[in-house]
Design brief:
Belongs to the glycosyl hydrolase 63 family. With 436 residues, the chain is mostly helical. 49% of the residues lie in helices and 5% in strands. Bound molecules: (2R)-3-hydroxy-2-(alpha-D-mannopyranosyloxy)propanoic acid.
Length: 436
Amino acid sequence: MKENIINRAISVLDANFQEGGFTIPSKGLYPFQWKWDSGFIAVGLAHYNTDHAKKEIETLLNAQWDNGFIPHIVFHTDDDSYFPGHDFHRSDLHPLSSKQYKSTGMTQPPVTGFILQDMLNIVDDKEDMLNFIKGQIDKVYDNHVYFYENRDPQNEGLVYIYHNWESGTDNSPVWDDIWDTMNPPEYTFERKDTTHVDASERPSKREYDHYLYIIDIAKQNNYDDTKIAELSPFLVQDPLFNAMLIKSNQALIELYGMIGGNDDKIAYLRKNQEKSIASFNKKLWNTELGAYVHYDLRNEKPIRHISSSSFSPLFAAIPSKERAEVLVHTMMERFGGDDKYLCASFDPTDDRFDPRKYWRGPVWINMNWMLYRGLKDYGYQEIAERVKNDSIELIERDGFFEYFDCRKDTGKETRKGYGGDNFSWSAALIIDLLKD
Ligand code: 2M8
């Protein structure tokens, strides 16, 4: 069984690998290179094709801007089957954007640092991988410097995101609180996603109006970070995004330690790491809910809803042992019923929960992969195993879908897999889970 899933997963990844040296998330729906997808994909590739794993990271980092920014989509080709494409995003408006690659002007969770460390842990030829890392690590470091110097206006060690697409959890009900503060114009545009996937599984037209409006504001200001911090109606400190930064800081500190001779960079990362972890625990922890929550920096208030992002700090060693216990208790109480697969992407006890719609409730394999490791690190072996086995069961049942209905009993609807099929990070991370 195990070998069979791994072989099928490899076929998915191989079919999605492109001539340009990168992997698309899913044929039809997502025809370019996405930042955090690339990281997860490289972990899977490292298990069986080191050259492709290295290429994946290299092609992403090649598109870095001169200010250290790494965009969320790199448009390697002129494919017009995705909206909004490069002609809407117009990365060329920023004076320091890549002259060689078209991209968006927004980013995604900074996973690349810890991915490099994972790749090193996975491969047999450590020397070869460490040499590769030596050639790439400064780009990832520059990306972290970009975040701390440009995305932290109150100098707290917590960086903001200015768009829901930067979070990776696109239509999470958490953002509904922000949409309530906005009234964007009605845009006329042609959706492409709903030609590949049923509209009921994707964000609504009105949600897209909000998404496009925030980009328009950023474009009117040539993607200038200071202006965005001043003007964007969406300005959020996201626990998932910041946990990824913290996890990657730690990986960079350890990798630089192995490489040697980078004391100034290690010192910079350590200083920020300490500050980030302290602020994270102080500002993003919500005692009443017993969980980490998002903070709306534009309107200066916490967003009191629990999502799977609330548990991601476990993966980055952020909570104390005591706090982790509270967090895991909250998770099991709200998300962990016997009638559900772990782990729903949004609180099943919340009115906004939808078990089948994208980031509003379904299970996502990348979140489960992080949760599995976080739970294991804190000694919750049994729950970790459940997260792993649930992930395997869902994929074995239905295939390598983008997301899965989190309910065990779905009545007449026997299908659990939704969104894009043959989805790359589901394939890549199941390989890693099965090899663990
Ligand atoms: C989804 O997001 C893109 C926009 O970035 C979309 O809906 O068009 C998200 O699930 C995101 O996290 C993911 O990186 C991307 C590609 O898989 O798809």
